[in-house]
Amino acid sequence: MPPTDRIRDHAGQGATTVAAHRARRRLRADQARQLADLLRHELLADGFPDGTLPHESTLATEYGASRNTVRQALDLLRAEGLVDRLPGVGTVVVARKYPHGLDRLMGLAETLREHGRVTNEVRTMGPAPAPAPVAERLLVQPGTDVLYIERLRRLNGIPLSLDLTYLPLDIGTALLDADLENTDVFRLLETVTGQRLGHAEITLEAVNADAHSAAVLEAPRGAAVLMLERLTHLADGRPVDLEFIRFRGDRITMSGLLHRSL
User: Fold this and answer.
1) Where are the beta strands (DSSP E) in 131-210?
2) 80-90 burial, b for 16+ CB within 10 Å, e for fewer?
3) In the predicted model, is pLDDT for residue 102 greater than 60?
4) Could you tell me how far CA 67 lies from the centroid of its own chain?
5) 110/125 Cα distance (integer angstroms)
6) Is 251:157 a contact under the CB 8 Å cutoff?
């Protein structure tokens, strides 16, 4: 074989080896991500009641994974702030996420009542001209004053969400003297209007925390937060509450029960 052909053949074998190595790395990364998803589910379901995960070798046996894959999966959970490695102890749960249902129309304090006390720090509150998108959603004229409220919401003292709320002024005015620090807006709205809330339209997406939101939520700048946009209506159909809620993604998990309908 001429030297040039041998060089080409050797180069081809090298390229094949590199490609195979990259494929193995991708496969291990995929397996680690899959395992991290399973372990995260167990964490959220209190599957480790003593707060300590099984040894890496035990996890490898239980899930049919290699030790390297287990370590990589635990690294992913560690990066999320859910677990940590303690010398002489092992991998321990250091944070938990709280469940927020999407199949019932409830305030945050109602949703998380089994997990502790929700308090609200009212950062801003007062009349403000409605921007066009807000006016359109609340069925008022653009520029009409609405009540704007910004609240930092904590669970057991831990920052959980930053809520920006817009309410029609004829309803919102009655909330100016209400106990917003300890009461959900939903409950206050039903008291003020004498009606039950009917339904809400929601949109949920992940966004990066801006500098202001990150500082208020005590989260790293640029960290992912769950943005819930919710327009709530009274039982008679009138839209009365437009909210933009930024949840710390490392402290909340969204869940719901869906039925298939054809």
Assistant:
1) 145-155, 158-168, 197-208
2) bbbbeeeeeee
3) yes
4) 30
5) 22
6) no
